[in-house]
Amino acid sequence: MVMGVDQYTSAHVFEDLPDGGRVVLDRASTGDTSGVATVRQHMRDIAIAFRAGDFAKPFEVHAQVVPGTAVMQARRSGIAYDVIDRPRGGEVRIRSTDPAAVAAIHEFLAFQRSGHHAAAHEPP
User: Fold this and answer.
1) What does the alpha-carbon distance between residue 50 and residue 79 come to, in Å, rounded to a whole number?
2) Strands lying side by side in the sheet with 89-96
3) Which of 2, 25, 86, 98 is the most buried (most CB within 10 A)?
4) Are 35 and 87 in contact (CB under 8 A)?
């Protein structure tokens, strides 16, 4: 319910990158225009909330404090969240030059991969 679409008919990727990482959410089909629009809005909402240090949505999904979010909240001024539309959904690219923030981002993404049984990279 938090994402607005069925996570089981969507593909998640939580990828670590040297300067942070990215969260990808794609619908199964480009023909699901309503679902694609919902995913894109969800990604925009996530980026806005995370920029403000608000990690309530991941807490709602997992019913627990998500590892890494306390540091991400404390160091939010040094973390950038950029939204990228994709053909079947959207992506939030997370960047920082702060090593502690990058470590926290990686911790957050690792927990998300495990919690969502998601990939660390997109399939080739």
Assistant:
1) 9
2) 10-17, 20-27, 89-96, 79-86
3) 25
4) no
CA-CA distances (angstroms) from residue 89 to 24, 42, 44, 67, 107?
8, 10, 11, 25, 24
pLDDT (average), residues 12-25: 95
* 48-60 burial: b if 16+ Cβ within 10 Å, else e: eebeeeebebbee
Q: Could you tell me which residue, 31 or 103, shows the higher pLDDT?
A: 103
d(CA 56, CA 28): 26
d(CA 36, CA 28): 9
Query: How would you classify the pairing of strands 89-96 and 20-27?
Result: antiparallel
d(CA 13, CA 21) in angstroms, rounded, equals 10
Phi, psi of 6 (to 5 degrees): -70, 120
Confidence of residue 113 (pLDDT cuts 50, 70, 90): confident
Point out which residues pair with 122 in neighbouring strands.
none
How far apart are alpha carbons 20 and 14 in whole angstroms? 11
